[in-house]
Amino acid sequence: MAHDIALLPGDGIGVEVVDAATPLLERAAETHDFEVETTRYEWGSDRFLDEGSLFPDDAMDRLADHDAILHGAMGDPRVPDYVTSIEGPIAIRQAFDLYVNYRPVRLHDAGNTPLKGYGRNDVDIAWFRENSEGEYVDIGGRLDRGGGSELAIQTSVYTEKGVERVVRAAFEAALDREGYLTNVTKSNALRYGPVFWDEVVEDVAESYPSVTLEHLLVDAASMDFVLRPDEFDVVVGPNLFGDILTDLTAAVTGGLGLAPSANVNPDGDAPGLYEPVHGSAPDIAGEGVANPIAAVLSGALMFEDLGEESAADALRDAVAAHLADDGAPHTPDLGGDGTTANVVADLRSRL
Ligand code: NAD
Ligand code: MN
What is its cofactor (predicted)? Predict the structure, then answer.
């Protein structure tokens, strides 16, 4: 059995971490008796600067032919960030209607985090970020009226279908886990979108009487993710809140260098897009010190969705053993002085 993977490294450390993770994924495949075929697409900011677009016109058709896409990140100081985001990964999520952005958050080792006193796996959160609409629909406008009275409008869109499907996916996950779902909202101050979102959550909840549902306002939630992260199980929230709060939950549990994500459409056969939560990190790009673990764990999520659970577990076990070993080389974001290559070699020895 061979899985056909598109590699879309992108820019900056996106390239470094995808190049680091790929041989480890191939190794895990080899030891679990399956093959991965990879096709590397050199699309990103350099292409934008040379040819005027991040992707060629037929990019989505070409990506559609693969079983899954492993992405690094896009973003380059020479290109506006809204171009690399909206015409980059957001365009892929939209093209394939990848409406669930699944972001697992796990505490490996509290030593390098604010959570001193917590043990491994004391924090284990499954984030379901709505990934197809909300604040990221790219609808709005500007009126350049001059005279200091410019005006800009950015619209959010919540549809019944769009909210219902991601909320249902989160309830389903809660059934498989601890049976506890937190809905992150802002329906006290935003009476149209978020109030509607909450109503849909309540409707879906009727089909899941065994799941305990908690509603948290996003401002209070951001505090609770720092003060009591161990009490969460599954969390669901709109696109923008999910984007912001998953950087926070990543930071609390060890940093962006460890946080993976899966963009998927559970209903169809579109390829999923697997990528670290982090961006292209221009501040450390080219130095060879990016932490590749978020990319490796994104590869584990990809293997899991491709039905290769034991290879996914092998990758996660190697990462857990690496993180628990104080003598292993860790990258500077974790307080070590190891390089990306050192971490790859260490993980390779554990596979
Ligand atoms: P970032 O995630 O790139 O970096 C934030 C901080 O975390 C930086 O200090 C960086 O050095 C550190 N960091 C991130 N990943 C790391 C890793 N693997 N190892 C060690 N340290 C790591 O966020 P930013 O600086 O806000 O954005 C930089 C660029 O990335 C921007 O152009 C932004 O638009 C883009 N971005 C892209 C994506 C994506 O492609 N999906 C996501 C987020 C940001
Ligand atoms: Mn983000």
Answer: Mn(2+); Mg(2+)
Domain boundary among 214, 229, 252: 252
What is the rounded average pLDDT of the residues 169-195?
Answer: 97
Q: Which residue has the higher pLDDT, 254 or 177?
A: 177
Catalytic residue among 65, 203, 219, 267: 219
Most ligand 1 atoms within 8 A of CB, residue of 278, 337, 344 to mutate = 278
Ligand approaching nearest to the C-alpha of 127: 2
User: How far is Cα of residue 53 from the mean position of the Cα atoms in its chain?
Assistant: 24
Q: Using an 8 Å Cβ cutoff, are 200 and 253 in contact? A: no
Domain of residue 219: give its range.
124-252
User: Does residue 333 line the site of ligand 1, with CB under 6 A?
Assistant: yes
**Residues 239-252 pLDDT 10s:** 999 999 999 999 99
* pLDDT one-digit tens code per residue, 322-339: 999 999 999 999 999 999
Is the model's pLDDT at 22 over the cut of 90? yes
**Which region holds residue 102: left if phi is over 0, alpha if psi is between -120 and 50, else beta?**
beta
pLDDT for res 123: 95
Which residue puts its alpha carbon closest to atom 31 of ligand 1? 75
Q: Is 243 in the pocket of ligand 1 (CB under 6 A)?
A: no
Tokens of 9: 């490294």
Q: Return the CATH number at 84.
A: 3.40.718.10
In sign, the C-alpha dihedral spanning 143, 149, 150, 154 is negative
| Nearest-angstrom CA–CA distance, 52 and 273 | 24
The verdict on the CB of residue 130 being under 6 Å from ligand 1 is no
Binding site membership of 281 for ligand 1 (Cβ less than 6 Å): yes
One domain, residues 266 and 151: no
